[in-house]
Amino acid sequence: MFRSLQRRIVVVFVGLLVLVMALMLALVTRSNTRIVTTEIQRELSAGTQVFTLLIEQNQRQLETAATILAADFAFREAIATQDRPTIRSVIRNHGLRIGAQVMMVIHPDGYLIASSQDGNAPSGSVLSPFADLLSAAETAGKSFGFKQMTDGRLYQIVLVPIYAPKLIAWVAIGFVVDDRWARDLFEVTGLVVSVIRHDGNGAGILASSLRDTERAALSAAVKEISTDMPGELRIGNEHYETVHVPLNQETFVALQRSVEQAEAPFRTLQTALWAIVLAGVIVFAIGSIMLARQIVRPVNELAGAARRIEAGDYAEPVPLKSSDEIGQLAASFDLMRERVANREQKILKLAYEDSLTGLPNRTRFIEEFNRLSDSSHGAVVVMNLDRFAPINNALGHPIGDRLLAEIGSRLGTFQSGANLVGRFWGDEFVFLLRDANRAAASRFVESLTSALRDPFVLDGQRLDVDASLGVALYPGDGRDAATLLRRAELAMYAAKRRHSSVAFAAEAGDEPPPEQLSLIGEMREAMARQEFLLYYQPKLDLASGQVTAVEALIRWRHPQQGMVPPGKFIPFAEKTGFIRELTPWVLEAVVVQAARWCAEGISLVPAVNLSALDLLNPKLIGHLRQLIDMHGLAANSLCLEITESALVEDPELALAHLNELAALGLKLSIDDYGVGQASLAYLQTLPVHELKIDGSFIRAVATTPKNAAIVRSTIGMCHALGLTVVGECAETADEIAWLIANECDLAQGYGIAKPMPAEEIPDWLAGYGARRRHQA
């Protein structure tokens, strides 16, 4: 659809205009929405204030009317003499004058003396329906509120006292809260006013300024109205922003503003803008089409010339019809036509040959391999020079390039109809041996290494070159070039590690599992998604029989692979340096948990493993000091376990950091002792408090004399040095009993408890203590 330049020009121009217009419309729409929202909130806020003022004004008017009635001498005399006909007559006439629907006289004891609503009730036979208002009035001298009467309607009530000279009665005056009342407030506030009652039997509308149809819709949606927070409510086809003003515990007034009505003026503006945008797009599109035609016509002529050149026709010159930019382009195009033929040959050579050695490159090698038939067999040999980097660094890159050229020249003698010799990059050369089996490949490798034994002399400098080679057989080790090259390269690296000249792919081991490779990339995401967990394995004090410490062990709850053991990701974290991001998280989580245990009265010293990268990290000490101070944890309530290998990489820096950690008061422990590279001299100089004997010595210690001798001597040596000894991987009762008998201080392993989440530790400790007491 967009292959035509003319169409692309039109689409770009019109598209940019549409984009600008769309952004403008989006900005206008967003601004309109914000203005409407702000205006609605302003109207609701102002309406709420006006509504409150009107309620207060009505209250004052009621209080005034009630006060006037209470001050009438004849009325007070009638109350004092219990002249009920006169009382009813007075309150009825007074109610008619002020338009009150409820007039009542209430005895101080709470029963009705007279009421304008019930003229037949005998004196003292009916209690006042305003017990709560009456109680408030007795405290404050008067009271005001909204009450629902027995007729089901809501009334605005005011209670004032009648004194002669002491309190002889209360007079209650009330106005009905009905649709007329709501419409009057609507006229003043401009907001929809609805009175809603919520009780244990459900919800209902007592009064509303809405029309009947809208009132029915509000009644259906009234369950969605909350009495404690505003929100948007749909009534019929309109949306209303709503605020609530409570009248009493069960009744509130919903003040609402229609969103659609507030948006109406802005919708008219948007319609006009849409019309302007549409007209502008149409006019701009017509202009873009006319401009594109003038640009594209000469370009099409140049495209025809390019197609001729593409087909190999360099004879016909490119037509030159103008002196503008298109004409200049045509002149340059014609010059290009003259030089393409010469450059084609150079390009082909560069595409298939290594420029330094003249040997076939990777592209040529792949093409030659792909020509092999499915039924054929052969071998792929990858060769990498040993110690080439020191030569390159010592003598410079020019000498290194000359050496590679000389090596390429010597290896070129092995190229024949059956063999292909190529250079991929750097100091790596590749050989394709057609119709070769393992024996033939071995003979070829021997002749190749023999040829490289003769030294190279450059500018009087004798250079001895060795190489490591990896061999992959076709089709046994793979059927495609990529697989064979990868496996041959892995075999070559295996030969380097073994200091052997050659290794075959079948003997070099398997490639890293894909799931491990994916785990490396997923560790940082796992940290962000909080997939890492900490489990704690108890350590038993063998002398007291109490659990006094735990070791924090990290786990990974992978969303697809489930619980991933640390052995599958910790080594990769150490190789990639991610351990420096993981360890601070572990330290913080352990310190927080230790502080929580201390607050709960649980005395446990958690231990955290530090890798070589962690121990050599200059930020470690400051981070630990900050964590301890922040959470108020005693320094000796945390133990750091260091492996022997962490001490070997940089002993001086490791010792300096250990001294600083010990100065903080932290407990230090040497982990996995006996299987690392540390010497006994470290035990004399390191500021450690504890030594953990590796589990390989603890397993079967009760039945293996050699293990027993090693562990027994280590325990004695540590005690002589003042160190605490921990036996790891104590998995059987016999092993624990042996450790007790040989005065080992602590034991850890599945024979005591498996690692568990922190929240399970308190229950486990309680259960373990109960079991010990029962056994005792």
Q: Let me know the largest β-sheet.
A: 8 strands, mixed, barrel
- Supply the number of helical segments: 25
Instruction: Briefly note the structural class of the backbone.
Output: alpha+beta
**Helicity range of the residues?**
40-55%
Low-confidence stretches: none
Computed CA radius of gyration, to the nearest angstrom: 47 Å
Q: What is the 3D form?
A: flat
Integer average pLDDT: 84
Read across the widest sheet, the strand sequence of neighbours is 18-19-21-22-23-24-25-26
Distance between the termini: 89 Å
Number of strands: 27
Measured by DSSP, the beta-strand proportion falls in 15-25%
Description of the structure:
With 776 residues, the protein is an alpha+beta fold. The chain contains 25 helices and 27 strands. The strands form 5 sheets. Strands 18-19-21-22-23-24-25-26 form an 8-stranded mixed β-barrel. Strand 18 and strand 19 form a beta hairpin. The longest helix is centred in the first third of the chain and has 67 residues.
